[in-house]
Every structure is written in C-alpha cells, then in structure tokens.
Design brief:
Chain lengths: 142, 431
C-alpha cells in the first residue's frame, strides 16, 4: 500500500493477468440466455447488467445460475475473443472455471478467474477499473 | 496450482487414464476432470454409474469442435449415458425456418456424441424414460432441470454438471467426490415455508412453476426444504418446480417433507439442525411471482409453446382431454391466430401416438418438435415476438434467447389462448 494504490487479494482459480473496466453485479448470471457470444453483450433481461458489453471487461458476479450450457457459451466467447478479460466471483464458480480450463485446452487462452471473499466482493462495487496480477487486484480509474 | 497436490486425489486408475494408458480421449477427459477436482478441492474421485450429457446442445463452433475432438480421439463412454436435447429436430427441421448451416453443424454435433456409444434419447427429461436412475446411485448429470429432478425426486446423487464436464465424466466413469455426491452436503440449510396456501391452488398445474420461480433466488445453490405444502404433488408438477427453480436460481436439490425420498419429515430434511434462513411465502408473494413470469398479458400471440422440460405422456393425456373438451374451432395462423407447438422426445411422441393422444393435437393443427426445444434451435428466427407458455423455464429464457414477450399461464389458459390467438385468462384458484 506504500504507493497509495488500493489493492485486494483473491484466490487464483485460473491464472493470468488482465486489465479492464469493472462490470459489477450482485445477481448471479446464466450465460445461456444471458450472454451473447457473438457480441460479448449481456442479454439476460432479468439481470441488472442487461445490455452491457462484457467483452474485455472485468466481470464481477457472485456466481452463475441456471443452465448447464453456461460453460459452452463462455467457451464459444473465448473462441470468438468476446469473453471478459477477467471473471471475479464470490466463492469458486465451477462452471466458469471449467470453461476457462477447456478454453486453455482448445484455444490456448482464457479469462483470468479469481475468487474473492464477501468483503472484497462488496468493495469492488465502486471500482471503475481493475488490474489483475495473479491474485492481486489493484483499483484503476478507468 | 498443478503437480503433486493435484495427483494425491487421483486413484491408480485415474493416473493410468491421465498417462494415456486407455488412449487419448480418456487422457484428455481425465486431464480436465483432475483440474476440476483441484478447483473444487475434492479429496478424491468416485465411480459413477450413469451420465446425462447436456453438451449435445449446439451453441456455436466451440462446443462442436470439442465434441469432434473427443470423437476423433475415439472417445467411448464407460457408463450408460443418455443424451440431452440437441440444436436440431433431426428429421423435421426443414419444416421450420432453421438456417441450413445451423442444421449442418448441429447434426455434426449430434453425430459426434452418438459415435461415443451413448443412448440417443435427445431429451431434457431423461428421468421420464427407461434410463431413470435409482435412489442413492452416483451419477453425473447435466441439464439443470434434470439435475434437480434426479437429486430431489429420485434421490440419486449428482452435482450440477456443466456442458463439457458431463462427457468427461462419462468417458472416464469418474467424478470429483464433492458437493451433492456426499450425504453430508444433501441436508437442507434453508426452508421455504408456505403459509395459507389453499389446497385448490396447491393442486393446480400452474402453481409449481410459480413456486419454483420464487424458490430459485431464495435457495441460491443450497439444498432447500419446502414446508407447508397441503397436497402431494404429481410427478410433472415436481418436474415443473425443479425446472423453474433451476432457471431463476441454481437449485440442484429440494426436499418436500412427506413427498421426496430424503425427507420423511422436515427435521429429517434439515438433519436436526436449525435452518440458516426461513422464507415465509403466502398468496401475496406467489401472486407477485406469477405476475413476474409474464411480460405481456393481453392481445395477440405468435405462438403457444408447451414442453419445457419435454412434455410427458401424462401431459399429452391432459392436453388431449382439454383439446377434445374445447373442440377444434379456432383462429388459424393465417387468419390472425397463432401456432401451437409442443416440444417432447421421440420416445414420448411415439408412445403418445400409439395411445391416440396426438389425434386431437393433429386435428387442431398443432405441431410437434422433438430432439430439441424452441430455445435451442432457431426454428423461427426473429418472428416469434409474442409467446405464451405454461413453463416457467420457457418464460424465463425466451426474452433473452428469442427476444420475445411472454405470457405465463395454466395449461387450460394456454389451450384457450391457442384457440383464440390471443392471451386468454380464465377464473381459477389464483383469484
């Protein structure tokens, strides 16, 4: 903290580095019927982020919900390079983890996946952007 | 995060697969599974006796490439494995506006999974066929509604398996020993308590999708008990409940004291512990949830669609009775009426046909779709703007997947609305 930066720490589920604007939601999301892999947009009309473009962002969600096909949709987004750059969840989300693991098997790339505790999750709410370096999240003003 | 710590949870058999002793497909499948076991913090892997493969659904080239990679490596399943819906009604897609490129790729994905020694059931309701699992059996099932049914109504043991992982379990016969595979994680930690729900309402077919819609966000992904239900629900009502709760939430296991097999009493469902949360639900909450499932409640319809999860034999019986009772007079689609579509499996269609249950539907001019559903295949791209359904799952996903407005109603309301080509409400237990 000596440089004045605001930092949080999380558990690395799928390793890597990423920089992106923060898209924050307290509602879980199903990627099937909720994420358009062609455009990288969130399309779940029940969700607070509906209409937002999540491609290349740091998407902060408590977890996934609903369909088993969430993984196939995220893998398709990884193939098309319309996936978020980082996924940050509250607790380990096995669906997102699987899509990232298979993305690395199939295409040699995937979003970074970090799991954070409840307090860290809440404090991400007002972050405009984030730099993810392994398990360290540094606040970024866009 | 890989290496020694990950290897400890694997058996000699697992390590053999990982070393390629059984070929390239089990090696790839075990590599993914071992990584997921590590992500989940599994202490070991366990044998499964059956799988249900949701990866069959075509959503783009990535899933197809994964399926064809496994097939080209000679993948074979080690346990009986049923197949979920695909992206195509294989032999009738030309009757709809499905783009040929979509059809070609969906069919390739079907062939890839077919080639692995699977059972080509092509249904999201595999628990209503011949491959129903047994109480206590360890299985790896995909398809959110099927997971909820298998765990809750049958008492089989499965985690929520996502696409791509279900097939890895089937190819290896193994799964990480975590979550709902383990007895200690199957006790309810939350209770939804029904207050003052009249028997007549609790017996209605459109009560269960609404209850499930409320249950999803409350339960999150914890096992949940439903207390205070004044009736014993039918199988199709439990199916509708699970499908709704696994859409609005991530429910994989619910207990109903006196109904589901792991809950003789509420205390049994909770394992004698106090719940961490109790949600009191009365008529007010239920009516609000019912309204939430409808985005347009009057005027013309393009389609009435039934069968998510896939329509059962018993449901065809009820539909046939309603169609006979109300008669074949209707507004035809070309006269401003709407389509009536029922989605089901090949097996149930054939049984219903033999039993004469499809005659009233044919006489009405209704249409059947098998192998898939209206959400999973682009049957009428962009033209189904106003839809009505008795399924909370269709109601939940249609706005996002089809861009359509939705009216949710009972089976009788759906039939009457299909006759008149517009949303019709009937007096009933909700009033």
């Amino acid at each position: 903290m000596s440089d004045g930066s605001v930092r949080l720490h999380g558990q690395v589920v799928v390793a890597g580095n990423a920089v992106g604007a923060v898209l924050y939601a307290t509602q879980p999301l199903s990627f099937w019927g909720g994420y358009d892999a062609a455009s990288g947009r969130i399309t779940d009309t029940h969700h607070s982020l509906a209409g937002e473009t999540a491609a290349g962002t740091a998407l902060v969600l408590p977890a996934t919900r609903g369909s088993s096909t969430t993984t196939a949709v995220l893998l398709e987004a990884i193939r098309r390079e319309t996936a978020p750059a980082a996924l940050i969840t509250r607790g380990v989300d096995a669906f997102l983890a699987l899509a990232c693991v298979v993305g690395q098997e199939m295409y040699g790339r995937s979003p970074v996946l970090i799991c954070v505790c409840e307090d860290a999750f809440r404090s991400l709410a007002d972050w405009p952007g984030v730099v993810v370096e392994e398990g360290t999240l540094t606040r970024r003003e866009r | 995060m890989t290496g020694e710590s990950g290897a400890a949870r694997l058996s000699a058999f697992d390590r053999g697969l990982l070393a390629g002793e059984e070929g390239e497909a089990p090696k790839l499948a075990m590599r993914i599974l071992a990584r997921m076991a590590e992500v989940r913090g599994a202490e070991s892997m366990l044998d499964i006796e059956a799988a249900h493969i949701d990866s069959t659904i075509y959503v783009g080239d990535a899933g197809l490439e994964f399926a064809e990679r496994l097939a080209s490596l000679g993948a074979r399943v080690r346990v009986p494995s049923t197949l979920n819906v695909s992206g195509l009604d294989e032999f009738h897609w030309q009757e709809w506006s499905v783009p040929p490129e979509w059809a070609e790729k969906s069919a390739r994905q079907m062939r890839a999974y077919d080639s692995m020694g699977t059972i080509p059931t092509w249904t999201c309701a595999p628990y209503q066929g011949r491959q129903t699992p047994r109480f206590g059996q360890q299985i790896a099932w995909g398809e959110s509604n099927a997971v909820a049914f298998a765990n809750s109504v049958i008492g089989a043991r499965t985690e929520r398996y996502p696409d791509l992982l279900d097939i890895c379990c089937a190819i290896t016969g193994r799964a990480p020993a975590v979550g709902l595979h383990l007895d200690e994680n199957r006790l309810a930690t939350r209770v939804l308590r029904l207050r003052g729900v009249p028997e007549e309402l609790a017996a209605a077919d459109d009560f269960y999708p609404v209850l499930g819609h409320l249950l999803g966000p409350f339960a999150e992904d914890d096992p949940v008990a439903i207390a205070g239900l004044p009736v014993i629900p039918e199988e199709d009502q439990l199916k509708a409940l699970g499908a709704a709760a696994a859409s609005s939430g991530a429910v994989a296991l619910f207990h109903i004291p006196g109904v589901t097999p792991e809950a003789p009493t509420l205390a049994d469902a909770l394992g004698g512990r106090e719940p961490v949360a109790v949600f009191d639900v009365g008529l007010e909450e239920l009516r609000a949830a019912r309204r939430e499932l409808t985005t347009h409640d009057e005027g013309a319809l393009d389609m009435v669609v039934l069968g998510s999860p896939h329509f059962s034999f018993a449901e065809f019986g009820k539909l046939a009775a309603l169609l006979r009772e109300r008669g074949p007079e209707r507004a035809l689609p070309e006269e401003g009426g709407c389509e009536l579509v029922v989605t089901t499996s090949r097996a149930v269609r054939d049984l219903a046909e033999r039993a004469g249950l499809l005659e009233p539907l044919h006489a009405f001019g209704g249409r059947l779709m098998v192998d898939t559903c209206v959400l999973a295949t682009p049957m009428t791209p962009g033209t189904t703007r106003r839809l009505m359904t008795n399924s909370a799952k269709y109601a939940w996903y249609s706005p996002g997947l089809l861009g359509s407005a939705v009216a949710f109603g009972s089976l009788a309301e759906c039939v009457e609305s299909a006759r008149q080509g517009r949303v019709v409400r009937e007096p009933g237990p909700w009033d």
